[in-house]
Amino acid sequence: MKHDFHVPVGSQQEAYLSIVTGNDVQIPVTIYVQGDGRVAMPLFHDEMLFPRQGLCLNDQGKADAYRSDNGFHSSIIFNPCLDSRIFIAFPTLLLLNNIGKEINERMIPDAFQTFYHAQYGIRWEGLLHALMQAPVRCLRLNGFSGCEVSGEEEQLPEMPHCIYPSNDFEPSLQPSGVMDYYRMDPASVIPALALDVKEGDRVLDMCSAPGGKALILAEALGDNGHLTTNEWSRARKEKLRSVLKAYIPKTTFSNIRVTGHDASKWGLFEPDQYNRILLDAPCSSERHVLHQTAELKKWKPSRSKQLARRQYALLCSALMSCKPGGRIVYSTCSLSMLENDETIRRLIKKKGDRFQCHTEFSPVYGEATEFGWQILPDSQSGWGPMYWSVLEHA
Question: With contact defined as beta carbons under 8 Å apart, do 206 and 277 qualify?
Fold first, then answer.
């Protein structure tokens, strides 16, 4: 059985389809990958090849297609075969055993599939489908802008100032001198809220770019308190600075420090300095990688292991910088358990006498994990992924 769906968009390639007869007859067809990402196969009825039979491909990257009065459907009970030339279009982002495997699998390395299927089991197919969709974004009202949420907009429960726009909406500069809304994944709001920042706190945002979470922290502090934002990458640090300046008044910005240090060494230079620390750690960012062909080609299972080592070092540094009684929120946008619960597990094993993992409360959004919570796009309207864990310094 020859079958290869590794076809770039806009090209065509010949493949072979098995016909449901007693002797596994094969016929050649041409697979077209159209500009909109859909796949079409021109099929021809031939009474000698498959008299009154359906065209069938098995579930290993193949499809069932049968003629019925209501069009084409997949079923083991099928009607007489195709009586004219037709095109069967395979939705690019559909992961089903019938009507084809997700055609973008042609781009996804087997090692990637194996790695995440081992963690998510039967959930993985639906999760991958959700990850391949366009990311969901909300608009979060800038509390410094002087604007108010319109009653016509859909506000997200338990997420102050977050809306789904009712129409095409672009953030704009307000008379107050700052932008009115910041566009972000709704799931990204939650770790910043979980930090529970109050006026007067000393707050460290260790890996702050692009800046959406830092804006939430700055609003919670107002003009009373101190916020240090850090981003090691020079380009990302400048992006962070530009976002903060666009959304935060000059008088408040004077209380914010923007730095570019290696956060894994932070605790050596500023121990016991902060009572609130957000560590939104660099991670595998699988959803982003899946939409970037060049990045996906470079992906290896060792990537997650390397990142987990870096994340552990960052967590140790955060623990050193946190005051007794303070709070650390660790978050990633990774699917990998190595970078999420397993990183927290390692910290508990090595330094569990210095903090408590705070799991008692139940957030409105997300599903509980062993040491925290996660939001996955297959179960929360396309949000995420986002993982977070709340640690209280002993």
Answer: yes
Who's near 316: CB < 8 A, 6+ residues apart? 264, 267, 347, 351
Q: Which of 186, 187, 204 is nearest to 195 (CA)?
A: 204
Q: Is 333 a catalytic residue?
A: yes
Find out whether 232 and 215 touch, Cβ atoms under 8 Å.
no
Question: Once rounded to an integer, what is the mean pLDDT over residues 305-333?
Answer: 98
Contacts of residue 20, Cβ cutoff 8 Å, sequence gap at least 6: 50, 53, 54, 55, 56
With beta carbons less than 8 A apart as the criterion, state whether 211 and 227 touch. Answer: no
Which domains, ranges and CATH numbers included, belong to the chain?
12-107 (no CATH), 185-393 (3.40.50.150)
Tens digit of each residue's pLDDT (9 = 90 or more) over 51-70: 333 333 333 333 333 333 33
Q: How far apart are the first and last CA of the chain?
A: 62
Q: Quote the Cα angle for 109-112-117, to 5°.
A: 130
Question: Pick the catalytic residue: 56, 147, 333, 357?
Answer: 333
Q: Can you tell me the distance from the alpha carbon of 116 to that of 125, in angstroms, rounded to the nearest whole number?
A: 10
Q: Given strand 55-56, what is the order of strands in its sheet? A: 55-56, 64-68, 71-73
- Give the whole-angstrom CA distance, residue 259 versus residue 238: 10
Query: Tens digits of per-residue pLDDT, 359-372?
Result: 877 778 899 999 99
In Å, the largest CA–CA distance within the chain is: 83
